[in-house]
Amino acid sequence: MNDLFERISTSFHAQGLMQTLGASLVSVQPGEVQIVLPYQKALSQQHGFLHAGAVSSVVDSAAGYAALTVAAEGYEVVTAEFKINLMRPAIGERFVAIGKVVNAGKLLTVCSGEVLAYGADAAAAPKVVALLQATIVNVKY
Amino acid sequence: MNDLFERISTSFHAQGLMQTLGASLVSVQPGEVQIVLPYQKALSQQHGFLHAGAVSSVVDSAAGYAALTVAAEGYEVVTAEFKINLMRPAIGERFVAIGKVVNAGKLLTVCSGEVLAYGADAAAAPKVVALLQATIVNVKY
Amino acid sequence: MNDLFERISTSFHAQGLMQTLGASLVSVQPGEVQIVLPYQKALSQQHGFLHAGAVSSVVDSAAGYAALTVAAEGYEVVTAEFKINLMRPAIGERFVAIGKVVNAGKLLTVCSGEVLAYGADAAAAPKVVALLQATIVNVKY
Amino acid sequence: MNDLFERISTSFHAQGLMQTLGASLVSVQPGEVQIVLPYQKALSQQHGFLHAGAVSSVVDSAAGYAALTVAAEGYEVVTAEFKINLMRPAIGERFVAIGKVVNAGKLLTVCSGEVLAYGADAAAAPKVVALLQATIVNVKY
User: Fold this and answer.
1) Contact A35, A23 (CB under 8 A)
2) N or C, fewer C-beta in 10 Å, chain D?
3) In chain B, which residues have their Cβ closer than 8 Å to the Cβ of A86?
4) ipTM of this complex > 0.90?
5) CATH architecture, domain A3-140
6) Average pLDDT in the D129-135 region?
7) Is D65 helix (H, G, I), strand (E, B) or coil?
């Protein structure tokens, strides 16, 4: 498992965009990866909420890395396509993107994802702000 | 037309994420908006190409603003959902995201989008790296 | 609950396509609807498997009716869009489409769906052949 | 070209669902396929319009066959996923589904599609009732 975390972490830190957004890898399990993104004004849309592009960026990455956790040796992954529903305004102090493998084929892996918004009240339940469904391709390198 | 550009431009500049990515609004026509994004390492994925999240961010914004150009007075827009195909590695010096209105309903506007990659060779034709289909909601404010 | 089943059932039986496909409504709960579709050659694609169009038809209907179970009085629903991953060949004797509400807004309801394939062996676990994510609009009638 | 039409036509006629729906192949060009579907009550949803499932079935098939026209020798195609926007009620006497190749990769082909509705008035312009974006996989047989 430590090896798995390290493998994903090395790739994650090589993603300039994840550093620019201020995202961190928080959990790597076989078939599931979580990324946290603290809110900052620099990631906002015009009303000050988290921009759909930032929401999409972290959950696409979480889904892609979830697929990577189940890819065969010698393969890496690229996102062929994803679809995301932005179900409510992304208002919060901290966002957690969760990517999960739904079906791992030889060639294509289908993942689902969601983004949870956490507010200032630590006791309050998070709200699901986005729902994703993605197709990831295994590519030999 | 100038009024239209100004209206979109004001909203665009209020988007922290567009500033953080270094994106600019280049063209606003009724039903079509173009955004340019110069490549920088800070927007990359692990291989140095433009991250799918950055690609998605600019083309989602272009589609949303295209919808806004045809929205009725007193309405603004939010993206309900989008689907994007990342058709080839986003390699280039400069990317142009084009959002277009396909169908404008009273409540929902359907937009298509694409992202073109331009390389160092100014004479070379750009490559379409991504294709988007989005559903935008008109919201009274 | 009986009222709910009857309300959905009346609409379901008015759908010519569901009759033509041979689909039946098997379960209606608040937020979840199940439809069963027995395999027949008349619904096949070129290899004899269940056609993606038939798969999509029943799971789109299941998702739409799931949304209807949570719609306010005086509203009906229409599917604005859906996205479906056809994860493996739809081989089976009987298919069960399950639609579930993920988020019910005032205007839009987001549903997920899946299609399970059951074979001749009653003891064998079904296989998930398709995964759906849909946006349903509440419309006043 | 005649060979191409014949190759697609043979596969099309082996699709039980296309026969059941009453769909016909009308045009096969490299990268573009058209299918026509006459309206009948047996394909309706609860208001008598063409069911979204029937709309999806024909345009998914048109997109898949468009991909097949550009697939390499010895390959056939399967739809990995598609996303469809149902932009207006599918009211008409006759529907034409058009599938087009947007990008043909070695492994994956991205297609767009649309469904046009034609009414009784032959002089009237058709209405675009649905817009599709699909990912098709090339599979060696």
Assistant:
1) yes
2) C
3) 78-81
4) yes
5) Roll (3.10)
6) 98
7) helix
